[in-house]
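Late entry, evening session. Most of the bench is empty. Finally got around to the prediction I had been postponing all week. Sequence below, unchanged from the version circulated by S.P.
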Amino acid sequence: MGKKLNILLLGEYSNYHNNLAVGLKELNHNVVLANAGDHYKNFYRDIDLSYKSKNKFSTNIKRIWIENTNINSLKNFDIVQIINPNVFSRFGNNIQLFKKILANNDKVFLSAVGDDYFYWKAYRDGKFKKSPHPGALIDENKKTSIWETSTGLINATKFLAENVNGIIPGSVSYLIPYRNHSNCRNVILQPLNVSKIEFKENQFNEKIVFFHGAQIGRYGFKGTHAIDEAMYKAAGKYKSDIIYKRSDSLPYNQYLETINETNVLIDQANSNEPAMNALIGMAKGKIVMGGCEDIFLKTHELKHSPLINITNDAKQISNQVERILDNKKEFLKLSTEGRAYVKNNHDPIDIAQKFIQEWSS
């Protein structure tokens, strides 16, 4: 075993860094998590950077104060991985804070797993055949994203991309914007600790339960309108066969409990590959409807699809629902095949080893 590393994982999306920390700690590395909890999800952190306040103005002031107060704790690490350029406020001195991170630590990496300037530029340049960008604009009732208009965010993204030791895409969708950057590294998939996720045999009773966990403010992003249109119609047409459950922005633990009572988890319609919610559903032994495009299968050399691909088209989603109803036994196999896929491709220790390899090269 190599040198024990002192690692800072800065920022959090969908428990990404928390899951990575599990693998890194198993490999005997020291890990510190610094984040704001990812809003209402309230994920674990060692250094709390949360900043919610009474109103938008005071929230911005509080965020800048907290970031500057804590910056001196974010130093003397062998490795710092920043989850997104938005980890520091665009209204504050984010570039200066990033400069301190770079100056006070050995190596710094950017994990490309969310919105940023280059992700939106790739969309405008026509590099995506399928993506959540149009839906995200509908959600915000805007023609352009904040990542295209905010000088603070644009400059932060460009600064990090130019100055970090490496950019590590978390999926094919995030490789597309960065593949021509000289410091872009290999895609490393999301870590997920399958051993901590209870598997329950998926059985179809009298009715098949479909569940879509929507998020307020992200209906367009996830394709919720098309999903709702298809599923409410299907639930009416096949009343004796289908139950459609729908929620909005459930707390994380409640969301997991709802998945337990589900046969088919409908994740999102605008993705090219399974993201964290889809992976959790697969690990729990649920059939998952979400992103599984050919570019994902080819990139990871997968011969069989571990989930059911859907698009932002109600008719296409309806067709997939009818396929499940017509081939129940065949689709039930995805319950065990999906968990096996997650176990084989997203194990935290295996993923942690891949990160260490990239950080060390």
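Two things to note before I forget:
The chain has two domains: 6-191+348-360, 194-345.
The two ends are 16 Å apart (CA to CA).
Will write this up properly tomorrow.
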